[in-house]
Design goal:
Layout (H helix, E strand, L loop, with lengths): L3 E7 L18 H5 L5 E7 L5 H10 L22 H7 L3 E6 L16 E3 L23 H10 L9 E5 L7 H20 L5 E6 L7 E4 L2 H4 L20 H10 L6 H31 L6 E7 L20 H4 L3 E4 L9 E8 L3 H8 L14 H4 L9 E5 L20 H7 L9 E6 L2 E6 L5 E4 L17 H18 L11
Parallel strand pairs: 1-6, 1-8, 2-10, 3-4, 3-6, 5-7
Antiparallel strand pairs: 2-9, 8-9, 11-12, 12-13, 13-14
């Protein structure tokens, strides 16, 4: 009998925000406990550092450049493959809960799932041509006042809101999503159906604004926060995008205590996500579905959270805070597993073929992921290199996020992305073991030795003694693009 699969997805959660990954201020007991039953991947990387391209990649097993999914505005074509479609076509009941970022709003989700809940509307909107709603409409007056306070003074572009008055304002959609997931688990346990289920539940936290209610807000010990990466102004030979955003966000005069409050609030949001995961785990156990369900928890990308005196994310930069993401897999009891923290290099695009392997079928299309089942069983060698990419070429105005003005907190990033200079041009990251290389168009490449330089401050690409290693990494990127430039569909057209 096929086993159930449950995906619980965070938005913008960095890998080092978990306690078992070494963060002394983090409170993540439910995520940490999964290490006793499954595998947490220390070296898991997303394929793009912003939402839409990353989600298109980890749901298809294709790199962003393969189908042009490098922008926030280019979603799935109706003929493109997708793990949601695959699960539905292979006999799974597919339940999609939370944000979209995958299917254009003018198209129904009928091919992708049996039920869709957006976290705002109570009804199943799978058959609706446009189920995109204003999530801000759920904010109560207290939350709106905090947002107004955020958009003022030197706090304007920080995304910092702070302590939420309760759980009914900003962030309420996440609770709605969790409630739908819990209701579905209850319903399935009562139906006694032999049909396996696949739940894709995607949560908004800890995506900025940085805001959280008690008890999580007050639970984070500010004195235990790890050291923050220095101001990008004091770090030479980095991407021009970072310098530009730093200049426009205007956070250089913030005290360390203000940054600590922002960082602690972010960890509180992570802790709230952890508590919601605990509710799902408890419900699966209470309904006797836990042992027969593979639970996969991860995030689409990370967040700078004050590192380099920058907040939020960047579309063509790849420091570990935004490229290295949590990935934890607790397989169904019948699947072989050696519980641990694994150092194997893995990518989020490995998920579709891993999910198919857990469900005991082969994907119907060519993709570039590699099943993680051998790693679950104890293997530590998975991939020699992992990749993350972003940006655009000059003249690609369709890849710009136009239509935003300085009144919005995203303005520093978006206005910098409008540049036809080097700031937002294409770049690709290649990580091989302890070395990370970034190839850039029109500006300086980057090379870091992470074992000695985990904060990525010393760009070795400018040093003569590292030119041989630099060339080796360049060759690996060339191989990567030759292997993945495109793919031939499995289904032949009639001649």
């Amino acid at each position: 009998m096929k086993k159930n699969i449950f995906l619980f997805v965070a938005d913008q959660m960095r890998n080092d925000s978990l306690a078992h990954m070494g963060n002394p201020a983090a409170i993540t007991p439910n995520l940490d406990a999964l290490v006793d039953e499954g595998v947490s991947f220390e070296n898991a990387y997303c394929q793009n550092p912003v939402c839409v391209p990353s989600r298109n990649s980890f749901l298809t097993g294709l790199y962003p450049h393969v189908g042009g999914h490098r922008t926030m505005h280019y979603l799935q074509r109706d003929d493109e493959p997708n793990i949601l479609k695959e699960m539905k076509n292979n006999g799974y009941e597919v339940i999609w809960i939370g944000r979209n970022d995958v299917v254009p709003a003018d198209r129904k989700k009928t091919d992708y799932c049996d039920e869709y809940y957006d976290g705002v509307l109570d009804e199943n909107t799978r058959d609706a041509e446009n189920s995109e709603v204003d999530h801000g409409a759920t904010m109560n007056e207290a939350s709106k006042k905090l947002q107004e306070k955020m958009l003022s003074g030197d706090n304007y572009y920080s995304f910092y809101m702070g302590k939420l008055p309760d759980g009914e304002g900003y962030g309420k959609t996440d609770w709605n999503c969790v409630e739908k997931a819990l209701d579905y688990i209850d319903r399935r346990s009562q139906e006694k159906s032999d049909k396996p289920f696949f739940v894709y539940c995607t949560i908004a936290f800890p995506h900025p604004p940085y805001a959280c209610e008690d008890p999580w807000y007050s639970s984070i010990d500010r004195h235990l926060l790890p050291k923050r990466r220095p101001n990008i102004k004091d770090v030479p030979n980095k991407a021009s995008m970072l310098y530009g955003i730093n200049q426009k966000q205007q956070l250089d005069n913030w005290t360390e205590s203000r940054f600590d409050e922002l960082r602690a609030t972010y960890l509180a949001m992570v802790s709230r996500f952890d508590a919601q995961l605990g509710l799902i785990k408890d419900k699966l156990k209470a309904t006797n579905l836990y042992d027969d369900t593979s639970l996969i928890v991860f995030s689409d990308h990370g967040d700078y959270t004050g590192d380099y005196s920058i907040t939020e994310k960047v579309q063509n930069c790849f420091e570990d805070p935004i490229s290295n993401v949590p990935l934890l897999i607790k397989p169904a009891k019948s699947i072989a597993v050696v519980p641990r923290i694994s150092k194997a290099q893995v990518e989020l695009l490995d998920l579709p073929t891993t999910i198919a392997a857990l469900a005991d079928f082969d994907l119907s299309y060519t993709q570039f992921g590699k099943s993680l089942l051998p790693v679950l069983a104890g293997q530590e060698i998975h991939k020699d290199a992992v990749f993350c990419e972003g940006g655009r070429i000059h003249g690609e105005t369709q890849a710009m996020e136009l239509g935003h003005g300085p009144s919005l907190p995203y303005w520093p990033r978006l206005s910098t992305q409008y540049s036809e200079g080097p700031e937002h041009t294409k770049a690709v990251m290649c990580k091989m073991g302890d070395y990370k290389y970034i190839m850039r168009l029109y500006e300086l490449d980057e090379l870091y030795y992470l074992k000695e330089d985990p904060m990525e401050l010393n760009n070795l690409a400018v040093k003569p003694e590292y030119q041989e290693m630099l060339q080796e990494m360049k060759n690996r990127v060339t191989q990567f693009y030759m292997e993945t430039t495109d793919f031939v569909p499995n289904k032949r057209d009639k001649r």
